[in-house]
Amino acid sequence: MNDLSRGEFFGAGALAGVAAAAIPGATLAAGPPVTLKIRWYGGGVYELATPDDKTIVLVDAWIWNNTGFKAFGIDKPAELSSAGAYAAYLKGRSPEAVIVALTHDHSDHIGDYFELLPALVGAGLDVKTLGQSDLMRAGLVPKFKAAGLDPTQIVLNGGNAINIGGSVEYKGARFEMVPAVHSTFAGFPSIGFIIDFAGTRVYASGDTDLFGDMALIGTRYRPALAIVSAGNGAFTMGPVPAASACKLLGVSHAIPVHYAHNPRVLGPECGELFRAAMAQAAPAAAVSILRPGATTTLTLAPYSASA
Ligand SMILES: [Zn+2]
Question: 3-state DSSP call for residue 241?
Fold first, then answer.
């Protein structure tokens, strides 16, 4: 890099800072904290649920084939071990809606998707899904059809889903799509989500590296909780940049995921490495380290769209 390009780089960075400060952002609502349940299925895949299980959100769909339990020496629970058992398990919790939010098409995120969706539909659940709009209305259409699913029925927005900056709401859960710095097999953008439900706001990073516009995501959306990829190795940012991401986002609570599910990423130690990095980068934020299969109830700052 010569002197001129370095100068342009710093100039652009300063401008970006001004722009971020000038953009009207969300504000956190006043009021008592709210609770949200999270259950980690391994790797970058997890479930969010309201305390009464009325709304269940799955972020990605790799469950019975998920290899994220082994490194912890934990046996995968029976209800996570097959499509049929899982559909019966969700049905037994009597949710009003199950929404599957797909971040991208890598196999450790989409691996069980086309077995999951028909199993949930077959169990009589109200199931909807969303992902990046071109992936949903072009890339995956043949696979939806092969699975016996009509994408115009099961994909939100009549089969179109949403694109970056767009949003959709279904039965009390609102999703807005945000960028991620990652890739996909099919070439469509890999993304993250801002998810409003249970009275709070969650940033689900999806697979990503650290990027500067996480500061803008923080200013613009003010998420209370960030669930960030932290596994390092071959595919995403590691615990230290993931903690830097949480600092840029300004969240009050953070959870690392996308580790210990294959030998090319960090193992179970990633959780404590992330906690240590957060103590340096964002010491005021709470950190929850999950165990595969365990459900954790989180206490989070409230969010109101009208605030
Ligand atoms: Zn990926």
Answer: helix
Summarize pLDDT for 28-55 with one digit per residue, the tens. 677 889 999 999 999 999 999 999 999 9
For residue 35, give the nearest of 58, 52, 54, 60 by alpha carbon.
Answer: 52
Q: How far apart are CA 138 and CA 61, in angstroms?
A: 19
For 54, 81, 288, the CA distances from 176, given in Å and listed in that order, are 20, 31, 24
Q: Which CATH architecture has domain 29-300?
A: 4-Layer Sandwich (3.60)
Q: How far is the CA of 92 from the centre of ligand 1 (A)?
A: 31
Extract the tokens encoding 38. Answer: 């999270």
What CA–CA distance (Å, rounded) separates 96 from 78? 23
How many angstroms separate the CA atoms of 191 and 200, rounded? Answer: 20
What 8-state DSSP symbol labels residue 132? B
Instruction: Answer yes or no: are the C-beta atoms of 25 and 221 closer than 8 Å.
Output: yes
Ligand 1 geometric centre to CA of 235 (Å): 7
Ligand 1 center to residue 59 CA distance, Å? Answer: 13
pLDDT tens digit string along 206-264? 999 999 999 999 999 999 999 999 999 999 999 999 999 999 999 999 999 999 999 99
Expressed in angstroms and rounded, the spacing between residue 192 Cα and the centre of ligand 1 is: 11
3-state SS record for 44-97: CEEEEECCCCCEEEEECCCCCCCCCCHHHCCCCCHHHCCHHHHHHHHHHCCCCE
CA of residue 120 relative to chain centroid, distance: 20
In the chain, the N- to C-terminal Cα span, in Å, equals: 45
Helices (H), ranges, 55-209: 83-92, 107-110, 113-122, 133-134, 141-146, 151-154
For ligand 1, a single-atom ion, the residues with CB < 5 A are: 106, 207
- What tokens were used for 154? 């099961």
Adjacent-strand bridge partners of 127: 98
